[in-house]
Amino acid sequence: MSKNFRKDGLGSLMKSRSGGFRTLAAFGLLMPLSVQAQVSPSDEKKEGSGLEEVLVTGTRIMSTGYNAPTPTSVISAEQLTANAQPNIFTTVAQLPSLQGSTGTQTNTFSTSSGQQGLSSFSLRGLGPIRTLTLLDGQRVVGANVTGVPDVSLFPQLLIERVDVVNGGASSSYGSDAVGGVVNFVTNTRFEGFKGNVQGGITNYDDNETVVAQFAAGSSFLDGRLHAVGSVEYHDEAGVGPGPYGVGLAGGRDWFTQRTLVNRNVTNDGSPQYVVIDYAQPYNYTKYGLITSGPLQGWAFDEAGNPFQFQYGSNGVPDRNAAGTVSGCLPGFCVGGDLSGNVDSGRTLQSDLERINGYGRLGFDFADDDEVYVTVNLAQVQTHNQPINGMNRPNLTIQCDNAFLPASIRAMCAAPNGNPADAITSFQYGTSNAILPSTQVYTDRRQYRFVLGALGGMSVLGKNWNYNGYYEHGVNFSDVDVKSIMLSRRFNQAINAITLDGNIVCADPVARANGCVPINIFGGMRPSDAAFNYIMPAKGPYQRTRQNQDVASFNISGEPVDLWAGPLAIALGVEYRKEEYRVRADAYGNGILPQAGIEGTPYNDDYPADPVLLDTGNNWYAGNYKNGEGEYSVKEAYLEFDLPLFDTESVGRANLNAASRVTDYSTSGTIDVWKIGGTWDTPLDGLRLRATTSRDARAPNLSELFAAPVTTTLPNFLDPFRNVNVLAIQNQVGNPALTPEIARNTSFGVVLSEPAWLPNFSVSVDYYKIKIDDVISSLSANDIVNFCFRGVLPTCNAFNLNNPNGPNFINVQSFNFASIETSGFDIEASYRWPQLFGLPGTFTVRGLATHIREYISDNGLPGTIPVDTAGVNIDTKADWKVLAIQSYDTDKFSFQIQERWISDGVLGNQYIECQPGTCPISTVNRPTINNNHVDGAFYLDIGGSYEMLPGTVAYFKVDNVLDEHPARVTIFSNPALYDALGRVYRLGVRFEL
């Protein structure tokens, strides 16, 4: 911690170790929200300076005794080490106000997102794009085209504290700070050598983890030259995948293939939507199933022998052209032969390897002035399997297929023994267990350089502080997909005939271009030549480069002494430029130019093939596209803190206000502001605070200029034909987007260590956020369903029955109406020095966030606002609670932590009812049989013991009770629930 705390600032809440107990944050996640003023190590008082500088994240004011009106949570270095996570992101993300953050357990079901392993924060459930993450108060180049940085690439062992500002801070820090700010503050004056070595494993004997971190610092030239640096290595083996069926990796038994099925019947007294466990799609199986017509229900075993498939639900195939099954729900039966289910093959946590190097060199060229340079070089690589196989429903198989068993050919000639009903082809579905499952590899590399200066000066007898820096950051993101089919080549390879005594591909054009036939009736492995044809060694790829340049200069001072104290002001200017370029392979991107971007030509890795589409989208998934774009931002701000009064009779109060003018090259000029204040009342320890602000978020590079992002939807329901189809979702950019405008309001009460109850603190804050012109998009489901119901003219955005190419749905961002959310934050802590006469300190604390509402209104005709507060298949649980109890002495410590998530629902729009009791189901108020989603309770324990001076051994057990994630209709929700089970960690920390 910095050495320059003031008694009227943070220092009043920080006790010395010699005083019999450690800092309030030593083993707790937070100091109470009343803690507002912190000393920034980078802006620490220099010898001879006349002003003690106090910097509060969320404001630019540096002043003695300053109290900011915005609730700010602080996580100390002690807590980061006590929580013993391989990535400090996990510790911060446990704060209840952070909902919807990403991490190594999220995005593992994705092929195309490129966000696997990306550690990014989401405050208030507003998403990472509306949470500004800083390093020493400075911006960091994005690790994805959405602009969010990867926290795992920060120098973790040098982090001195993390400040979390729960409220809008656009007027102080600029765009993206709609939900708040997370600022990582490093120790720039560390001296000595320290390290941390840790290992971990789950109780399912997987996700083996190794972490090694080392940091060093020293001063030279009589203390004027300061050098600090760190290196770290982090490897996690990951979890998954499981086999086909319902078994998960490591024998985890919580997966039940829970599915939400739309009956498409709204007025028969039964619920329109039905939640079922052990759901089985009836349009494919592990080794193949005839899905319609007179032969419907014949499946193939691993040896290729036909048999009558067991549908479950006592289902009986109707053997009609639609492929319906009597006794089953549309698209699904319950139970039966579940061996072909593919969801169990999803990776539960990406395997990850991370390398990080950081250095800072600072030189005091005067007593109060420093010039410095920082370098951050880091890399993180991940690997995941999105799903088992590559299921292909609705394939057309010819009855003369050379691989088709003779018995099935005979049935084609005389179904049910009647030659008059002869057929020449049938519909067929397979999960393609004969093919290796798709593997996704990501590689993100960050190169960040900062040149800066900070210090103080005297102007007209007043002390002023300045802080300026230039940052250049480059991030390279590579995505490579292995073992994935070219769908059109697959279609050619499965259409096999006998020619001159040899089995060959039926299409002569395909044969001339290397087509090798494959047998999809059973489990026979294709030949290497067939593999190479449908799944070439060089699969889809995406190569992205992002550049960020920032120049910022800020000054702060107290130019005037007023009746209740000095007037403090801060002002500054900033210029920022963001740009990106992405290139993709020819089979996914196509060779035709896109919006003026030069296309990627075919080459030796991607030879031209008339079977394939020159326009791209040839892969089963991972159809990446070329793209590029840039924008720049110029801004200036002014902030002031006006003391209103300071007397014993009425207490002390201040008014804080700020204004920022921002000019975006893409969308013009916008003004943001804030106004707030605090009142330390005459009542002992009681403080009131309130703030309101106008904040903004400009569209990011992805929303403006993104290369079309393509996602495969293998079981998309076509409501026009009531069948599941394979479709491609294309997400495209929109350069006409305008900034989002938000209004943040909060007010709260803080009681901090009153004389009548020393060592106790509690705070309660209410918040309300309204965002207009929200940048979002309709889901693929909404686009199709709105057209089907005649609600909106969205029919030209998709084609789900496209014989000449892939089925597709085009999804584009636009400025829709609004998001409105409100709720409460509650924090409390109490500590007992020498409880029951024992040495050391016992501390308890609790944090809770309650989301009252989270209402999204797209403003489109025929729709109503949707409230997702408490929707536990989303990220916004009604209540999220964190409680910590710790006992700490100079020799050892022990900590218990509880994390609780309240029960929730699948959707607040649903009316839950049972058959015979349901009202008519409508678009806006549909009926459902089960709208409940369980919450979760997690118990964590940890402790440490000082073996030698400066050397501490520690342990940590997360999820002691091996709590399973709630069963939801989207496989699982790792953004809210833990999917791994109990985790054990052991390690050693040392400092010399």
From TrEMBL:
Signal sequence bounds: 1-37
Origin: domain of life: Bacteria
Annotated InterPro entries: Beta-barrel_TonB, Beta-barrel_TonB_sf, Plug_dom, Plug_dom_sf, TonB-dep_rcpt-like
SUPFAM superfamilies: Porins
Topology class, membrane: Multi-pass membrane protein
Localization annotation: Cell outer membrane
Record's protein name: TonB-dependent receptor
Organism: Steroidobacter gossypii
